[in-house]
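Appendix B: complex inputs.
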Amino acid sequence: MAKEPASAPQRRPLTLRDVSDASGVSEMTVSRVLRNRGDVSGATRERVLAAARELGYVPNRIAGALASQRVNLVAVIIPSLSNMVFPEVLTGVSEVLEDTGLQPVVGVTNYSPEREEKVLYEMLSWRPSGIIIAGLERSPAARAMLENAGIPIVEIMDVDGTPVDNAVGISHRRAGRHIAEAIIAAGYRRIGFLGTMMPHDHRARKRLEGFEEALAAAGLHVEDREFYSGGSALLKGREMTEAILARSPDLDFLYYSNDMIGAGGLLWCLHHGIDVPAKVGLAGFNGVELVQGLPCHLATMDACRLEIGRKAAEIVAGKRLDGVTSGLVIELEPKLEPGDTIRRV
Amino acid sequence: MAKEPASAPQRRPLTLRDVSDASGVSEMTVSRVLRNRGDVSGATRERVLAAARELGYVPNRIAGALASQRVNLVAVIIPSLSNMVFPEVLTGVSEVLEDTGLQPVVGVTNYSPEREEKVLYEMLSWRPSGIIIAGLERSPAARAMLENAGIPIVEIMDVDGTPVDNAVGISHRRAGRHIAEAIIAAGYRRIGFLGTMMPHDHRARKRLEGFEEALAAAGLHVEDREFYSGGSALLKGREMTEAILARSPDLDFLYYSNDMIGAGGLLWCLHHGIDVPAKVGLAGFNGVELVQGLPCHLATMDACRLEIGRKAAEIVAGKRLDGVTSGLVIELEPKLEPGDTIRRV
DNA sequence: TTCTCGGCCGTTAACGCTAACATGCCACAG
DNA sequence: CTGTGGCATGTTAGCGTTAACGGCCGAGAA
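Resulting structure:
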């Protein structure tokens, strides 16, 4: 870490050369000291470090990366930062990458395939040493870029599909089925769905598909549905709940595509004296921390966000015991957290 | 944007040379085409683009940056991604940078000065063309690095202090005073404070200082306080509110250091039938979207997050009409949003 | 004594690209 | 017919660093 340099702000940016001049050794030796690589005597090491600190020298990784053909960056490409799920995945990634010398670099696609393509291209142009990217669905061009990148790729969040290389995630289809079965088992029969309109949120779509499959298997179906896009999810949850119950007052269960709108719905029900879970049951998805703060715990399903981040990072960092960095598919098991909004049977 | 290449995954990574060979022109011409710079005839342009697409070539920005001494990256260094405030700032930054060719790169410090130093060093080693960094308080080493970087620096969120170069933010001290005055004007007298324990959240500290100043000026003081660290803020808000009201049942106002714990407190009060705002008034800080989803609107103060991100990005991008990129201090005015949790006078 | 060997440090040649300049060509003016 | 200027392209020389190798020197082995 650089300490404050004694010199005034310089015009010409500092190079290894400046440090080498200041310490009377070759640039190569300075480079060795700064990277802790190769043999350097304790005395010169000290001298070089002192000079570097004195000058406030910060190595130029651009030149370093070009010369060494190595870049310590891992691209992490996610759809959004406002959906708390993704910062949590990032936390898992950072944790594992922390002591590997690798560094995550985040790109955000806003659920747009075009932006994903652009972000990916941009990222690849920095020649990262690995890519962690959300989802399995992408444009042919994006897929081709991943296939040709020649670095470890990990597609995360989802395993319902064909990964380019590795995948770490849960089966959203199965998660949807699972919760539907729990709802049916609890005796609910007239079921409504509330979700987002985003056509590119494939995971929400798959959950709904799995959900409907399980209902169908029990001779049931989604009786009414309500969609939204944009805005405060919590508020939308309130509004949508009001709307769907006004339209279909007989519904006895509301399944929300995420916890945030679920929480809004729950607050609305509580505020309007609706008996949860006796008269109406509720469930969301993701297991976000927020639901723990509500007066009544929303049923939800943990999406294993932290673990997904960790496992993905382990793969790109080559940290797995078996050393495998290609062709892996790791399916995690989301746990149903019944909370207080599903009847106990 | 690259389309899918016909070739199989190559061993040797592609270079300009491969494209130049494939299209029968010099590397320089390929470079010109790919960067849209200099004169190239329409015919060769097409030929080159076709070859590049065919091969799936992605330019190597590392080499490009080294040769041109220009890097299209802007480092954005923030304390956290889980506090929704920062993703929102990022949104503002991205919006403005979108059509400038610049790209934000995020670094997270977790409110730790040591990590900030490390992240900053790391970022500087990529020679970004600008830095946007949260807060004004930092280690001497970090400050020195900023001073010597020789690029536009914008310190954001806060203007109560001495910026290294530019600053865009609000005065948290003044914001604290402002809300205290509103509380006093509404007739509240026995005031409690609930906040975070983080010693490095200087902005929360300054708000509290301003808050206490204004109370003192009116002959009042904070009668009780409650601190937390970590965990679900919403849940903590509930618990802390219960604790402080159990200990000091006479309090008639609770000031929360952020909206999240404020929301938890509000939910607790509503759930326990406490008359808000008649018996107890509440206020938070930040104006996060979430509060709009609550059954009753928490009083809050907008921290101008989006605007801060935009203005900061405009400075580093040299987008200001006056062209100034140095020595600016832009103070934004946070608006008090009284909501439903402060008595109307 | 000579020979090896390992620790320490320097030299050279890339890495893949672009700035700057050079070149060839053609149209058009004189 | 020659000169001139602009367009289209090529050539050269780095950018700041590191890989690879080479050299020197002193200590211990033969």
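The mean pLDDT of chain A is 94.
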